[in-house]
What we know:
The structure holds 2 protein chains of 2 kinds. By secondary structure, chain A is mainly alpha-helical. Chain A is built from 13 helices and 6 strands. Chain B is built from 10 helices and 12 strands.
Amino acid sequence: MTADCSSASGTGVPVPAPARPPGPWRKAGRTLLRNRSAMAALGVLVCMTIACLLAPLYAHDVARVDPFTSNVAGSIMLDGHEVDIMQPNDNPLHLGLSPIGPTGHAAYLLGADSQGRDVAARLLYGGRNSLLISACAAVLCLLLAATAGIAAGFFGGLMDTVLSRLMDIMWAVPVYLFAISLSIVTVSQGLKLGPFVIEADNLLIPIVIIALVYVPYAARPIRGRVLALRQAEFVTAARCLGVPRWRIVLFDILPNVMTTLVVLGPLLMALALLAESALSFLSIGVQAPAASWGTIIQDGEGLIYTRPMVAVAPGLAIVIVVLALNILGDGLRDALDVRDAARRSS
Amino acid sequence: MSAFPVSSPEQGGAPLLSVRALRKTYSLPRGQTLKAVDGVSLDVLPGEVLGLVGESGCGKSTLGRCLLRLTDVSSGQITFEGQDITHLGERALRPLRQRMQMVFQDSYASLNPRRRIGDLLAEPLRVHPGPDGRKRPAAAITARLHELMDLVSLPVTALDRYPHEFSGGQRQRINIARALALSPRLVVADEPVSALDVSVQAQIVNLFADLQAQLGLTYVFVAHDLAVVRQISTRVAVMYLGAVVELGETDDVLHHPAHPYTAALTQAVPRPVVGASRHPPLRGDIPSPVARPSGCRFHTRCPMVQDRCRVEDPALHTVRPGHQVACHFPLAAD
């Protein structure tokens, strides 16, 4: 039991092994497991993710619809009757057509959009893109912010000045305006980086843009934490022991910053989801015919009085996911005891 | 301080660490400077325990950190084992770190809360090569960890635990074990017991004393508690406002203080002696190191102040063999 202690790789992150006292991460995990609201939020997120991952199954085998092609002239069988997808309006003059509303059947469960496509199936496909983009953007943003925050906080001096001013400049631009201007340029032209050409409909574009615009929001608290940690006596002790700086960053600073990163993760993902929806709503995020919750809301915008479900359903999905992410983030913060850790080590 | 005093003649041999005219100043806003260490010269001889005492804010901790080059010094010279280390960079200092270590005051803050004790203690053994000049094998590190636990009387099972699972005294034992991991010659202990319960203080001080005898260590022992210093030090340097005002054998300095400040400090320690001689107590607080008084730095609080003290800064000079004082009118030994 003691023998493997010294041969541990020195990551500071406890390696699970029986008969050893639990490490801080395990303890936090246990606290989180006991937190009912956080576990409920996690459950909601997992269910949403699984549902979205099963989108092709639902579209092909349950609803038997094609959610990506226009189906204005089509019809479906409901209780043995053939029903047109586009139906005459029920206004007195019967002018114009409206897509079919919620059917209560597997096909067109939530009705059709203005192009006669199944909203429920598009909702699941859109969720894939929305969740993928927001999760990737959050992770990328954390990586960039952690690098910048640790570099600025630990090395200080010129590095800190340059990085901090850069962040300030980015912060000075309203985040949505910043994202919109970047998106308009890249979506209209695609992106050519030497031999790499990124097409306008590549999901990397919204991922990178959203990650970039939120870097200052994550980097600032990380830098603050590192500044406090750099003054911590255990860092002085490590220097006194002759530990090289890269080892101090890796094994003394990083494990203590990890808690901040873990807590920021879900909150950043919530912000990224909102940003992605906004960009897609403005047609500068996910490009048609692909869907995201933002594009579906845009599709439903014109139908808001006749078929409100088209816009409300993705709107609700966004609300639920953002809420769940925030509750999970709060739970993580309580479990990891971030404030307490900051107090103790400063 | 212009004089460069020479250490006690009894213990010959080259000093392990010697400091000449050391200054550490911090720039403050509005062009002010804080003189934390203001011209200190002293020698630390091999095998001795040099106690560094003074009120809080007198610069003794800063001096301790300067000695190990944990902060840059503003001017002066530090020599360790005959090598000038005043301006060595972090990388050049690294091999020397094996032979000079520090024990910090806050036993909790000086241990990374996210690492196991075994991991923390193994860190110096991982970054420094073994005696054969190569990376230490894992088995050697494990063996050394067990030795260290034994040395500070902690169970081997402690290696698997985290710092918060220990009491202050136990954590200080862990800190001592870490400082000793590389078998240093010099250990600077920065108020290692002042944050501990009085009952635990004695244990830790005894541990320091035992280890010194066992391993032939040299200590610079920073403290504000004279009782602790009396127990462990062979020599004492009394600091006031960034400078050493009295330096000598522990018994001589504490029983026959030549500087009025030392006399006042010893008076402040309650002694169970009827009719012990009383000097007037000190008035007021230690002046700000930003605006230090002219002349003798102690004249604003000195009960025996005279006109000369207000203008002329006394240099450290020998009053008795092995006993130096920075005072124009040193007290006679009674």
